[in-house]
Design brief:
Helices cover 38% and strands 13% of the residues. The chain has 128 residues and is of the alpha+beta class.
Length: 128
């Protein structure tokens, strides 16, 4: 890494920051107590990966879920990204399928973008 260059935040760090932000917002938005992470990603030992797959873990499921209905939507799913990362084809398939089932979905690069989407969703604002 070059001198004076800031390290890029990882998807994990962005997600941690999002949940820290959500914790600070609970008094105003108690629904954020239902916000949760779906731990489908990451590198695991092969035995653990096989067991999780047998238990129902599925590749491509979005990272974050807010199971709170608003307007025409049953809930909100967010696929978190950091830097220049893009959703995989499998993630895109999941997002499209969830859209078709009446959920609002978003791909958010960074916790600030995710927080803004969550606020717009909860407040019934215009969603992108």
């Amino acid at each position: 890494m070059a001198k004076n260059q800031m390290p890029r935040p990882s998807e994990s760090n962005e997600q941690i920051a999002l949940f820290e932000w959500a914790g600070y917002q609970l008094k105003k938005y108690p629904e954020l107590g239902l916000l949760y992470h779906i731990p489908n990603g990451g590198h695991r030992h092969a035995t653990t990966a096989r067991r999780l797959k047998a238990e129902g873990v599925k590749a491509g499921v979005p990272d974050v879920c807010l199971p709170v209905a608003r307007g025409a939507y049953h809930g909100l799913y967010i696929e978190m990204k950091a830097g220049k990362n893009k959703p995989t084809q499998n993630q895109e398939r999941w997002l499209n399928a969830l859209d078709e089932q009446g959920y609002y979905t978003a791909v958010c690069v960074g916790w600030e973008v995710a927080a803004a989407i969550i606020l717009k969703y909860l407040e019934g604002g215009d969603l992108p």
